Amino acid sequence: MSTAPARLPTEERQAEIVTAALELAKETSPGLITTSDIAAGVGVSQGALFKHFPTKDAIWLAAMGWVRGQLLARLEKAADQAASPMDALAGMFKAHVGFVASHPGVPRFIFHELQRAADSPVKQEVRKLLQAYRKLLRRQLDAAVARGQVSPKVDLEAAATLFVGVVQGLVMQSMLSGNAAAIKGQADAVFAIYRRGIEELA
């Protein structure tokens, strides 16, 4: 009886390959992950893998595209469902933290790529993500100032930078501890400090 994996539509198989690569990144440095490892994670041969992606870099580029789409969708949904701009910022913070907790291989993959000297297509995708993220943040911060929820004295560009930096700090600590889920336990308290800072600037 054949044990060969079922043939899937191209998009579904590509999604499986991306998922397998990010799953491997949870435990292994992305630089050490081989196409053989990824193929094994999916349950296909390397030849089958290369029918969908010509190189390992192409897999990582697709993975970053997936991350950008998924994370931005979660952030936008959290903002759209909020009753006020400040609630939107809190929801976006939780959404980002929740995404990292659910996909701990993602930050390992991104940090690895950012350490590479070359300006790779993956880095360009990361920049696109950050640019879109900052636009979302600025929209909510501007609205929060207009609603009187954020002090008009706040440097909003700095506030957006700090928001992203706080999340990245939590992510780094979770990576060092090896417990991605722990990030959720600190999220509310950390955001509360951030919130007080932008509300009460003298």
TrEMBL record:
It comes from the Bacteria. Keywords: DNA-binding, Repressor, Transcription, Transcription regulation. Residues 11-71 form the HTH tetR-type domain. GO terms for molecular function: DNA-binding transcription factor activity; transcription cis-regulatory region binding. Residues 34-53 bind DNA. It holds the Pfam family TetR_C_13. The keyword rRNA processing does not apply. The keyword Transcription regulation applies. InterPro entries: DNA-bd_HTH_TetR-type_CS, Homeodomain-like_sf, HTH-type_TetR-like_transc_reg, HTH_TetR, Tet_transcr_reg_TetR-rel_C_sf, TetR_C. PANTHER family: HTH-TYPE TRANSCRIPTIONAL REGULATOR BETI, HTH-TYPE TRANSCRIPTIONAL REGULATOR RUTR. This is TetR/AcrR family transcriptional regulator. It comes from Ramlibacter lithotrophicus.
